[in-house]
């Protein structure tokens, strides 16, 4: 797959991360063992460990130091996906039944908590107060982003600032953290750490906007889940915000988006109106602005293969929404 080619610089180390995750999550309890293995086999791209390792490649790269951090960050990400699927009542992810669909909400929440606990176990082993504090701060903000999304469900008065606040916490901060810690652990300067962190932040914002676009226009088989999930759940995304600003479509969209229960025909109507309003194209332009900023931010770093990989990763994110 294309993302694997983009991680070619670190593919051997990523395979070790995968192997170590499997070993680390082994537990005697049969249910936790089954659910953990199921999640690991779900086909995740391991992008967050990949960003951590690629960021370290610019500086004093020591894989053995980065390994526990890469693993901890991936476990935090996996836990958030499990919890998200419960909150969203999602039945599929990446084309497979979610944990909640297979084992129920109670087991899913317990598994997510287990993953977070195992991440904490790794963080304690790292024994670095600054790293621990940084991870804790971001974890708190991620929870705040999730709560904000729940609070704002079906609120058609949301603006770009509120949307940005939410996606920054739900998605961008963790990707930014991966890049930041990869640099920190590899003895980068403060300026270099800032560069990597900012790259990750801009990429994370673009990544989430692309996901929000795909939830409206993607082929369900390619997306791995039904489109229109945000519309059904009352999650107001950037394409919707732009569409609501167009007076030709605003009244009907307000009526439909504010409804807690929508028929499939109504979901299809919302999709059609968003596309007709130009909300998708306007959102794509925002994606390109953030990706351009992410790439330009790397110009101070050495011209090494990892820099090419980060640039290609940004381009890959942008290509997904077309």
Rg computed from alpha carbons, rounded to a whole number of angstroms: 20 Å
CATH architectural grouping? Orthogonal Bundle
List the total number of helices.
17
The CATH top-level class label: Mainly Alpha
Range of helix content: over 70%
Task: Write a structural description.
The chain is mostly helical. The protein has a single domain, classed as Orthogonal Bundle (Farnesyl Diphosphate Synthase). 76% of the residues lie in helices and 1% in strands. It has 17 helices and 2 strands. It has helices spanning 2-6, 11-24, 30-40, 47-56, 63-88, 99-103, 105-126, 129-151, 160-185, 190-217, 220-223, 229-233, 238-244, 247-257, 264-277, 279-296, 305-319, and strands at 92-93, 96-97. A hairpin with a 2-residue loop joins strand 1 (92-93) and strand 2 (96-97). Helix 5 (63-88) runs antiparallel to helix 9 (160-185), helix 8 runs antiparallel to helix 9 (160-185) and helix 9 crosses helix 10. The longest helix has 28 residues, at 190-217. It is globular and about 55 Å long.
């Amino acid at each position: 797959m294309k993302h694997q080619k983009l991680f070619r610089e670190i593919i051997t180390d990523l395979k070790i991360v995968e192997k170590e995750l499997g070993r680390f999550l082994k537990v005697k309890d049969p249910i936790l063992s089954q659910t953990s293995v199921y999640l690991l086999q779900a086909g995740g791209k391991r992008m967050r460990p990949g960003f951590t390792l690629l960021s370290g490649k610019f500086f004093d790269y020591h894989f053995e130091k980065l390994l526990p951090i890469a693993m901890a960050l991936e476990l935090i990400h996996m836990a958030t996906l499990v919890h998200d699927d419960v909150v969203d009542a999602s039945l599929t992810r990446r084309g497979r039944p979610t944990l909640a669909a297979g084992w129920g909400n109670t087991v899913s929440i317990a598994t997510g908590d287990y993953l977070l606990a195992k991440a904490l176990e790794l963080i304690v082993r790292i024994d670095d107060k600054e790293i621990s504090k940084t991870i804790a701060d971001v974890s708190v903000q991620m929870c705040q982003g999730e709560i904000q999304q729940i609070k704002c469900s079906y609120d058609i008065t949301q603006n770009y600032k509120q949307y940005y606040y939410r996606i920054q916490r739900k998605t961008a901060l963790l990707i930014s953290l991966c890049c930041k810690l990869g640099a920190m652990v590899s003895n980068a300067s403060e300026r270099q750490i800032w560069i990597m962190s900012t790259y990750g932040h801009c990429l994370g914002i673009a990544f989430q906007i692309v996901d929000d676009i795909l939830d409206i226009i993607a082929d369900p088989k390619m997306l791995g889940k039904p489109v229109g999930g945000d519309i059904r759940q009352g999650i107001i995304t950037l394409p919707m915000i732009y569409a609501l600003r167009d007076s030709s479509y605003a009244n009907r969209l307000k009526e439909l988006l504010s409804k807690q229960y929508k028929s499939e025909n109504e979901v299809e109507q919302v999709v059609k109106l968003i596309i007709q309003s130009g909300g998708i194209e306007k959102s794509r332009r925002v994606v390109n602005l953030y990706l351009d900023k992410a790439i330009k931010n790397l110009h101070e770093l050495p011209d090494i293969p990892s820099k090419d990989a980060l640039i290609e990763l940004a381009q890959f994110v942008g290509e997904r929404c077309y």
